[in-house]
User: Which sequence fits this backbone?
């Protein structure tokens, strides 16, 4: 789902569907409560809570869709939110793992970017990194 080629991470379908259902359900519930509440304080409070669930679901969905790593033309591309970083495979020095995040460093030791370790397809990315000579710490 939402892949960038053969060697790419993807979004898991189950969390994606769950987030979309929470997003749409909370929006529909909030609108219905605000339209049919007729000044009832409890209904307005529930509508406000559903609006907060809608905003949280929208933020999670946006983060899910923008969190991606892929290999294109022998270059590792990493995206998260509004950050995008690229590094040629031969310039990758080491890859470290901590707190479900793979941090990618260049040969000089500077951090280039991060990859979420829980994404589907991360094993293919890590295999290609190992194949290109990156050391894992």
Assistant:
């Amino acid at each position: 789902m939402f892949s960038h080629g053969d060697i790419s991470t993807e979004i898991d379908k189950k969390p994606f569907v769950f987030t979309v259902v929470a997003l749409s359900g909370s929006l529909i519930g909030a609108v219905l409560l605000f339209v049919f509440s007729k000044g009832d304080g409890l209904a307005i409070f529930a509508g406000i809570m559903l609006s907060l669930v809608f905003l949280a679901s929208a933020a999670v969905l946006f983060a899910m869709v923008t969190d991606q790593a892929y290999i294109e033309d022998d270059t590792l591309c990493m995206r998260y939110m509004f950050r995008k970083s690229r590094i040629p495979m031969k310039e990758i020095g080491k890859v470290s793992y901590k707190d479900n995040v793979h941090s990618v460093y260049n040969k000089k030791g500077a951090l280039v970017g991060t990859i979420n370790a829980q994404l589907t397809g991360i094993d293919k990315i890590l295999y290609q990194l190992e194949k290109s000579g990156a050391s894992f710490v």
Q: What stands out?
A: The chain has three helices and seven strands. Helices lie at 13-36, 41-66, 122-131. The mean pLDDT is 89. The beta strands are 68-72, 75-80, 83-88, 92-98, 101-106, 111-116, 135-136.
